[in-house]
Sequence to fold (313 residues):
Amino acid sequence: MAERFLPLILVSQIQRSGGSMMAQLLDGHPELLVHPHELHIGSPNKWDWPAFTLRESPEHWFNFLYEKPFENLVTHGYTKPGSNKFAVEDVFPFSFSIEKLRHQFLEYCAQKRPIERQRQILDAYFQAFFDAWEDHRPTGRELFVAAFTPRVVMYEPCVEQFFADYPDGKLISLVRNPCSWYASTVRHNTDHANLRFALREWLLCMDGIKRVADRSNVLVLIYEDVLANPQSSLSRVADFIGIKFDPILLRPSYLRQPVRPNSSFDIDVHGINTQMIDRRDSLPAPFVKVIEDVAMPAYRELVRQHGLGSLHS
Fold:
């Protein structure tokens, strides 16, 4: 198997803020290997970045990294609709060999002993993953692996472990207007029926993003700006990553096939959709007032401090 040990572009922020959309926009770019679903290599939560003891066995490492959700995709096909009843129609064949994933991972670890850095284990996993994904056709020009995992950026130890493993990696975080975000998340996460609890989580994400926003290997984007100005936003993403701009970046896709939004709302169109920019009209006025008082000041401060385009407030 040809070796592809590439840096990782990690897309991460609180859920319902455009992470799936960004991964689907990166899909199909000839210089990227894009993980097709949320990355589930952390434990006990998917956003807990892996931390291995190097004296453990490769079998232990594999069992830790193994992404069980792919069993469902192998059985039922690839889909990622969120709560969008129309996106349920976007189901694609998913030919993936779990046994090949395990075999290739263990083979790499056997060839490269002794394993001296956690990065070698992650390199082995991603190489084995794309070898085992039979539907994927690499171009041979890939420069990065790209993947989306929510919430990593919210927890400082997880972010620091990611950058310890990938000093050559990059982090992209999207910030969504808290009114629009809450209108989406309350349909997705039953815990967020408690508005105050939901806003504490949103502010925790903002704190995490502010901690890293000034790093040269971090790009912060406003979700609404990506929707309203996709050409300029995705050109900026391409420049940040260091890849050539390609029109495929303007079309959410799975293996270059267009997909409907992974949305909490019903949207029966493919592509970037400006309907998702402002959802506050779906919220009761008292909820909007609380969000304006509790969360909007932090949102406006981040936008102004880092010159992140238009205020969608």
About this structure: The domain at 8-306 is CATH 3.40.50.300 (Rossmann fold). The longest strand covers residues 32-38. The chain has twelve helices and seven strands.
